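In response to the reviewer comment on reproducibility (Comment 2.3), we provide here a single inverse folding case reported in full, input and output, so that an independent group could reproduce the run without further information from us. The structure tokens appear first.
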């Protein structure tokens, strides 16, 4: 259920899964409009499974946008959330505060997070726990003093940063970057150059690729990168990026490219690929990934999407196909088919017999109370 009543929005979702391990999950969201474009909201989740104690999460968040001197935007955002994995379990919290200055000639933002070790929402995802995180960005985007025939604006990133350290102390990982050069052309194309400095301190060995392992330790490395992005408005849009430099205790050279073809209003095709040539003291490998997406709209009410991907690490090809039929605005029927095939085998791939697959249908009905 979702909808709006005056200045308040409400959403509720409940799901019940049968089988050997029955589960019941629910999410409730309430949001109150504030200051025109801002809001204050609350959310609660419940996750229960047969034989296990129920897990609950609740929290509040806000966004307070202001117009300051000269018509510039200034936004304050934040949230506080708490989770508990059982009735008598430990309560963990997640707290965030953000100040954002998103304007035409400058985009300045700073963010602080505190994620306690006990914060583990059953219906959410947390990359790291037991940490403090400080991040931000200082991008300056001046326009030419006199209107240029070719250049719309320049883009310089004085510093972007993301620093993570443990609540008990000790630097965990960090990333720093500068963009000494960037141009957006009048036709929408972009050319950019970056220099990035990274730090990571894994406390256990982990695998990057088959037979390629990074051992525990403290690693600093620096990389350089150049990018080209074609304008979104182009019928045929290309993007390209190349980066080179150190990588943990080795080196890597990375290339990525994509091509998108659009024939409005019915067809949208895109293909992209990445190649990473990595050399470490104990191994050398090349990681390849290819993705393909095709969208076709028969009419405004009926459209299809097919997504396919392959990579040489998992040696697996997979597809996702979706059909969406809008019977009326807000009421949709979805039919989704997922398939996967194991590649890299000595025998030929039997495309008519995937190694795994699934068919899902969902219907959403909208009505006004």
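Designed residues, in position order:
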């Amino acid at each position: 259920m979702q909808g709006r009543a005056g200045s308040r929005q409400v959403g509720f979702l409940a799901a019940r899964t049968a089988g050997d391990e029955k589960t019941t999950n629910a999410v409730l969201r309430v949001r109150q409009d504030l200051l025109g474009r801002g809001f204050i909201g609350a959310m609660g989740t419940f996750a229960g499974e047969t034989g296990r104690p129920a897990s609950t999460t609740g929290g509040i968040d806000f966004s307070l946008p202001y117009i300051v001197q000269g018509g510039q935007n200034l936004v304050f955002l934040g949230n506080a959330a708490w989770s508990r994995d059982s009735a008598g379990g430990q309560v963990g919290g997640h707290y965030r505060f953000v100040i954002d200055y998103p304007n035409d000639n400058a985009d300045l933002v700073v963010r602080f997070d505190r994620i306690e070790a006990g914060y583990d929402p059953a219906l959410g995802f947390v990359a790291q726990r037991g940490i403090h995180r400080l991040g931000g960005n200082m991008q300056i985007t001046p326009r030419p003093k006199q209107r240029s025939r070719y250049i719309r604006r320049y883009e310089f990133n004085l510093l972007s940063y993301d620093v993570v350290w443990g609540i008990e102390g000790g630097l965990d990982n960090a990333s720093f970057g500068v963009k000494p050069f960037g141009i957006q052309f009048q036709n929408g194309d972009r050319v950019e150059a970056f220099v990035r400095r990274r730090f990571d301190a894994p406390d256990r060995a982990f695998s990057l690729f088959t037979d390629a392992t990074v051992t525990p330790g403290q690693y600093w490395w620096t990389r350089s990168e150049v990018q080209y992005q074609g304008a979104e408005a182009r019928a045929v849009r290309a993007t390209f990026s190349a980066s080179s430099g150190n990588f943990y205790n080795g080196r890597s050279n990375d290339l990525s490219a994509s091509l998108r073809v659009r024939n409005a209003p019915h067809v949208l095709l895109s293909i992209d690929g990445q190649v990473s040539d990595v050399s470490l003291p104990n191994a050398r490998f090349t990681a390849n990934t290819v993705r393909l997406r095709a969208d076709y709209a028969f009419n405004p009410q009926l459209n299809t999407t097919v997504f396919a991907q392959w990579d040489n690490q998992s040696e697996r090809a997979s597809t996702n196909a979706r059909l969406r039929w809008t019977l009326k605005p807000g009421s949709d029927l979805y039919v989704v088919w997922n398939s996967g095939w194991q590649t890299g085998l000595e025998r030929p791939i039997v495309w008519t017999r995937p190694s795994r697959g699934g068919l899902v249908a969902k219907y959403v009905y909208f009505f006004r109370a």
